[in-house]
Amino acid sequence: MTAQAVVTGLGVVAPNGLGTEEYWAATLAGTSGLGPVTRFDAGSYPSRIAGEVPDFVPEEHIPSRLLPQTDHMTRLALAAADWAVEDAAVDPAALDEYGMGVVTAASGGGVEYGQRELQQLWSRGKEYVSAYQSFAWFYAVNTGQISIRHKMRGPSGVLVTEQAGGLDTLGHARRHVRHGIPLVVSGGVDGALCPWGWVAQISTGRLSTADDPDRAYLPFTDQASGYVPGEGGAVLLVEDAEAAKARGAERIYGEIAGYAATFDPRPGSGRPPGLRRAVEEALADARVTAAEVDVVFADAAGVPELDRAEADALTEVFGPYGVPVTAPKTMTGRLFGGGASLDVATALLSLRDGVVPPTANVTAPADGCALDLVTGSAREAPLRTALVLARGYGGFNAAMVVRRV
Amino acid sequence: MTWQSRAKQVPQGGDGSSDFHSEQDSSGPAGDEQGGPAMTRRVAITGLGVVAPGGIGVKAYWEMLTAGRSATRIITHFDASPFRSRVAAECDFDPEAAGLSPQEIRRMDRAAQFAVVSAREALADSGIEADTYEPTRIGATLGNAVGCTTSLEREYVVVSDGGRKWNVDHEYAVPDLYRHFVPSSMVGELAWTAGAEGPAAMVSTGCTSGLDALGHAAELIREGSADMVITGATEAPISPITSACFDAIHATTPRNDDPEHASRPFDRTRNGLVLGEGAATLILEDLEHARRRGAHVYAEIAGFASRCNAHHMTGLKPDGREMAEAIDVALAQARIDPSAVDYVNAHGSSTKMNDRHETAAFKRSLGHHAYSTPVSSIKSMIGHSLGAIGGLEAAACALAIEHGVLPPTANLTEPDPECDLDYIPLHARERRTDVVLSVGSGFGGFQTALVLARPERSSR
């Protein structure tokens, strides 16, 4: 019999809320965390709005010896992992060390740390490069640091699929659970709010250049003109349902019921894109029909062509206006490896409270976009099953079904 | 009962062997982590491609490894004179001669170029045609530790005007900057090369990335998410920032006066790793599919496990405990008794800490058999290419099974008395090889073990 993978703990760091309940309250209220960039001087760049995590004082969350060796996004990840473990009331010291794994998503690594050390090397010389640079910037850093902090020695991993990574890691965590690992700390916390990360994204032409934070990221609308980057994400504690019960877990947010990942064909091949297939395979994997899905958390690229492709995929599977769709990431910006994990956490909170958070700032979908987009204010509804979509730059698609148990 | 103790109770060999070859039986080596109820699908390696220092292509690579020739030399990619360690194992790689188009060369970082060139060789080697598999049933995974480092550093220098500007200049950014910034673009190239539309992911677990990408790929086939996976690993890290990083922690060797003998795993005089670069691609298929189409099968991926030492981002404890755990679980999953291991491809990074750590791990896992099992490190010849090395080592392991020849540990002339196993010094050895264990160890604390085996090996 296949083990059931359930989520028993959440740790959220988001631009509109530090901590799960703070984030959830802000999200339901439609409170956005987007604003002018303060982390660096963005005045010379065409894009100047971001979702920064406010009021995060690293010294309050991270042991001082870790400060010189961690990028900002790793500090956020360590805090989120602490909170997820705490939320699940797990005492790692009391569990089998090889029965706990860590799987995280990455996209650009510790970019701000990396920029600082590149600058040291090129402006001052190689003897000024930090002894920690070798691992502080690299993609595996969050998994390594979290495993060390909680003494988790089980199977661990790091997946890089740009914004799809937040789902791919949770899908991978479920694999580990199915192979007999009782507990996996998983998800993504990410961010690259420094000039180097900013310029890399500007080069895609997909960054919003609007200066009004409430008008900068408007997916599925006629005004869509790109996305706003943010930082943060969510760490989720994924457990084998039996193991969670055996240790007396107090709370089960829901089950990772279905997951699938696909890759788009090479442009010009004439073959259909992979997003719809990811949705259909995830539903089949969860053994649910489209009609049983109560809400969809969209990828919501904010780029007209990509929005259209997602709306088409959803319409093909669910029919026109066939299912409530929301994109609360309009309040956080796109969080790279962290975004889809945060969406899964949000979906689980929606299931818990029977309420769908709004797509803030969006008033009406574009003409021809046949989505029942939840706009304005949160919508109450009995919810059992949610679908989360994510796409990663270059052709990655992922879909995940979570269900109340 | 804890998970760990269950893992220890798996029958290894003996009673597990009766159903091992039964084609119609649902038992195979691809069980769950405990070696419990096994799943049907077995995973075959049916194609290989390599870009390595000292040899582009599988043939040149294998000739070099079995000749015991080292490809390490003084760095030519950039002026390394300011650095403490100036040695590396570089690929003599001409992207144009290797078949890449001008646009591909412009678009791809050197690491992506390596990956695509090795992927084309592997696909041709496998005999897979465009219509052999439905694209949606093909997956892609790629191991890589440090992304498109070379391109990123080159572009950083331009947009920062030589490190002068913190507010780097977006007007000098190349159009492909974001493709270099998110290394997942490289697995995208691999997927396009194979026409893969199934699950795709870059696996980035530092120096175990290569082995972990293979394990991930094998899992996609076992669980039924794909029938074929193009997998492998690539890295092109030889760049000033990488040298600066390793200099800062004295990880790389300062043996600049004797570059061709600088990588000396298990030798008393070794004093640090030698950076390398390269790529390997392996074509994995569901064994039954592969047999039905009459494919040549190099080996089967019989077992895989990874563990974390949760100790230190760069340090290792001398007891080798977590690596041993990974080995135990991988062998249990393969239902192979430790005494049946014919060859161990070591991590052998040419640092004292590593060499002792894994020697201890082999003794813990293989017991007395460790002393009679040949072990070698090909990093003595091709250096340590970080995320790529696991793929290159797995390719070498598949070739060892194919040819019955074990590559040596080059430059091992004065054995470290603390490392007292048979490390196949200097010269390759002929030996029929059915079961190979390959291990990796990396920054972040990752410890990985992969078991490759001849699918039709005799019962154990």
TrEMBL record, chain A:
Signal peptide: none annotated. InterPro entries: Beta-ketoacyl_synthase (IPR000794), Ketoacyl_synth_C (IPR014031), Ketoacyl_synth_N (IPR014030), PKS_Beta-ketoAc_synthase_dom (IPR020841), Thiolase-like (IPR016039). Residues 2-404 form the Ketosynthase family 3 (KS3) domain. It comes from Streptomyces musisoli. Keywords: Acyltransferase, Transferase. PROSITE patterns: KS3_2 (PS52004). It comes from the Bacteria. This is Ketosynthase chain-length factor. Coiled coil: none annotated. Belongs to the thiolase-like superfamily. Beta-ketoacyl-ACP synthases family. Pfam families: ketoacyl-synt (PF00109), Ketoacyl-synt_C (PF02801). PANTHER family: POLYKETIDE BETA-KETOACYL SYNTHASE 2-RELATED, POLYKETIDE SYNTHASE-RELATED.
